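If it is no trouble, can you show me the amino acids of a protein and the C-alpha cells describing how it folds?
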Amino acid sequence: MAEGGRRHRAFIGSFTAAGGPGLVIADVHPASGALSLTGRLGTVPDPSYLALSPDRSMLYAVSETADGAVAAFRVGGDKPEPAGPPVPVDGSGPTHLSLHAGHVLTANYGSGSVSAVPVRPDGTLAPAPSGQLLHTGSGPHDRRQRGPHAHQVQPDPTGRWAVSVDLGTDSVRVCTLDGGTPVLHREIALRPGSGPRHLAFHPDGEHAYVVNELTPTVTVCRWDAAGGSLKPLTEVQVLPGAPVGDAYPSGIVVSPDGRFVWTATRGEDVLSVLAVEGAGLRLTGTVPCGGHWPRALAEHGGFLYAANERSGDVTWFAVEERTGIPRYDGSVEVAAASCVVFG
C-alpha cells in the first residue's frame, strides 16, 4: 500500500488479435516496483494504448482496429468496469490517446487523423467525435510513408495546445480545439525519412524530444509555449553503432528530474540512456530490454517498465540515480503486451 493507504496499480494494454488478454490489471509494490497480476478484462479488442483521467477514477483505451474506437472504464473499485459501449472515432487504427480540454483525443494511424471525443462530467464518452483533423502529406520511405500516419497526440505542458506526431509525413502538428474540432495551428517539418513516432516534453516546458521510428534517433527540439511552435535543434543516435538487423525505436520517457531521456528500440531490443546536457543529449549506454520487441516504455516511482510485445511480458528496471542506467529487476507474462500506465 502507498502512503495514506492508496493502492498502487498498473494497467497493461495488449493486442487481442495476437493472443493478448486485453486489459490487464496489476498491483505495484512501491518499494521494489514489482508487478503482481490481479485480473484482466477482455471486453475491448486490441486495447493497445491506455490513459487515465487526472483524478485516476477513469481509464480510457483505444481499440486499435480497422474501424477504430475508444472505450471508458471506471477504475475506482477492485476491477475496471466498462462505462458505456466503445465509441467509434471515425478513423482507423488508433494507436494513442490522451485527455485534453474536456475531450479524449486519438491519433489514428491508419487514416492519418486526430479525433476528439467529448468527455461528459461523469467521465463517460459522448457517442461520437465532435471533430476530426485529417493530416495530409507523405515521406520518402516507399513502404511506410505513402501517406499520413498519426502515431501520437498529447497536450503540451501548459494545456493550451495539442501536439500530434505523424510518422508518414515526417512532421509534428500543433493544434487547438475549436468547438471540439482539432484545428491546425502550425506544422513543423522534421528530417525527411526520419519517421517520427512519439514526443516527450522536458519538465522545464521549453524542450521536447521526438523519437524517430524509421531511423534510430531522437530529434531534440525547443518548445515555445507562447507561440505554439516547435523548433528542431539537433538529432542524436540512440544506438552506439549501426544496427545489425531491425532497429525500430518506439517509446521515449524523460526522467522526472529532467536529467535523462530513455528510449526503447525494437529489433535491437534495448533501452538507451541519454544524458541531458543543456539543449542537447548525449548517448551514455544501452541495456537489454529483458524481452523481445519493446513497444512501449514507462516510468513510475523511480522504475522503468517495458511492454515487450513479441516475447509477451512486461519487464521492470531499477534506475541508478547517478547515471540513469536501468538494472533489470523482474518481469510478468502478458501476451502481446503493448503499453503500461500507472494510477
The first strand starts at residue 9 and ends at 14. The chain has a mean pLDDT of 96. The chain has no helices and 29 strands. The CA atoms of residues 203 and 258 lie 6 Å apart.
